[in-house]
Amino acid sequence: xxxxxxxxxxxxxxxxxxxxxxxxxxxxxxxxxxxxxxxxxxxxxxxxxxxxxxxxxxxxxxxxxxxxxxxxxxxxxxxxxxxxxxxxxxxxxxxxxxxxxxxxxxxxxxxxxxxxxxxxxxxxxxxxxxxxxxxxxxxxxxxxxxxxxxxxxxxxxxxxxxxxxxxxxxxxxxxxxxxxxxxxxxxxxxxxxxxxxxxxxxxxxxxxxxxxxxxxxxxxxxxxxxxxxxxxxxxxxxxxxxxxxxxxxxxxxxxxxxxxxxxxxxxxxxxxxxxxxxxxxxxxxxxxxxxxxxxxxxx
Length: 299
Known about the structure:
Layout: H1 2-39, H2 57-72, H3 85-88, H4 107-119, E1 144-150, E2 155-160, E3 165-166, E4 174-177, E5 189-194, H5 203-214, E6 223-234, E7 237-250, E8 253-264, E9 272-279, H6 287-294, E10 297-298
Antiparallel strand pairs: 1-2, 2-10, 3-4, 4-5, 5-9, 6-7, 7-8, 8-9
């Protein structure tokens, strides 16, 4: 009987010890779980293993663009976004690296300056508003033996015989002269050359400047009045003729010269200039002006 009683007491003791141990273990595990949760910093999710995904090209561009924007502190456009092109475009006159470009004189600026000077020159009146044909001078034109072929200027015109003589061309491309006039240093002159003044927007305006330039080959103080202004055709090329009378004084006496200039378009070059002037002391040759202006050729 005593043996049975001892066995029952021993079993109860074992059960009591096991329950206490279980209570202790369970009591300790719950604070550990809470500690693990509290230990994580606020706002940071617990690390959970996930399957990695390789981003596509668009995603990569967006991600890199976003990273670049964060690093630079400025917005970086992503693929497909639009930007204002005017914001970064250089304005007129701007130069790279902040260097200001030096102003250069353009051919158009030279042309404008030359025209402004001509329009304010009291020796040269404004051109007639309407076209005027070159008048037909009296008499017979001088005989010609061939053509003067001015390859430098790209034109050809009569080479006169008898009265007219070939002379040293410089500073022109070709030159013919009449005999000297007694008591005068001026005589008939027929020359050609590429137009020696700034080319204007039209042949008419360029011819206007060329006629003004020819006053350099007349007595000092010479002025002119217009007698003709007309377009011409030289083969398939356009041209312009200006006729004028030059007025000047020699040894106290007033004189005039009949003169004309022709400008002719020449492929890939400046227009060709043909200029003829004949003083009143050689008026018998004035008809040669008509022959020259009506016999131009393009080489």
